[in-house]
Amino acid sequence: MNMKAGVHVFCALMLCFAGIGQALAAECRQEIRFEKGAISAQVSGQITAYDYCDYLVRANKGQLLTVWNSSEKSDTVLQGPLEAMLIDGEAVELPKNGLYTLRVLMPRALARKGQQDTFTLKVQIVTPGVLSQHASAVASPADGHGARESLDWPGYYHGIVPCASCPGIDTWLHLEEQKDRVHYQLTEKYLAEKDSTFQSQNTAVWQENNSSILLLLGADENRRLFVREGSVFLLGMDQLQPEEDSAYRLEKMDVFSGHQEHLFVAPSQVRRTTTKQDGEIVNLEDVLINFEHPTEAGHMSLQANLTLYCEDDAYAMPIITYYEKSFASGDIINKAVQKDADKLPFTDQDDVMAQAARSYCQ
Predict the structure, then answer these.
(1) What is the pTM of this model?
(2) Annotation: CATH topology of 254-360
(3) Which of 16, 114, 192, 304 could lock 317 by a disulfide, CB 3.0 to 4.6 Å apart?
(4) Could you report the per-residue pLDDT of 169-202, keeping only the tens digit for each?
(5) Which fold has domain 3-126?
(6) For the residues of 188-245, what is the DSSP string, one character each?
């Protein structure tokens, strides 16, 4: 974004906000401090009507500032040496060293109605070039081939990784090879926190060692991924390889698609058993189904425990949670727990349940 153009746009857009003058005093004001070695931090707040929250960040000339506001009601405005309306996920190059203010407020149309907004603001500041300074230090495998050439790495990955301020971050990552580059989509849901789902997509590039991938400027904090068979690991800024028992592991998912549905299964959660009554049974824990369009009940995804009855060409879901948005995000629409859930027949051979049965039933 052209800096001068951004300032003019900012000045024009500020006319859409009411009362942002001397008559208003900020309801909340604090400086955002980053943990040692971190390039991102997040804060949460609440505003009503014409209130606003100011968050102060210290940054240097040439650094890139990116913010993500979890709310669809409020906006984020940058003030200080540079003034601009910030767009979620779009990096802004800072022109000077100094203290910048991130102001979260509502447009006049919503403020005049006295509406209330609760938000989580994720802030990232990076110095171009620093992220890749250690990349070449990781040696390539002895045969000259890294994960890029030897592994089936494109696909979907999932895991719950540690979080400093919540029980964990439910993380979904999609890596797709597109000619000479990699495209990624990332969904991060901060558990037990309202309105704390962040989504981003952008280009990623393989590092020189062909064993790690650098995700470029998005809500993923520009982190590097280390690729292994069946999984990827989120690396810290100074890490070259993951620790042996790393908690930052995302497992590659088995994916079945049909009838505008996509079923995601973690191979580690597949359990097989045999009973006299039902014969071979496959239990799949914590599966996810995304729907390409909202269902009649209004949900876009569900999480469930799934049981496949191999000899009956049927399935049951004794535990189901329905979500407003894809990847088990948004509001929970409904929950169902049935100890003796009914067996449901496969619709046809393209049914995602039938596809899973062909894969897992022996």
Answers:
(1) 0.62
(2) Lipocalin (2.40.128)
(3) 304
(4) 999 999 998 876 788 999 999 988 776 888 888 8
(5) Jelly Rolls (2.60.120)
(6) EEETT-TT-EEEEEEEEEE-TTSSEEEEPSSTTTT-EEEEETTEEEEPPTT-SS--TT
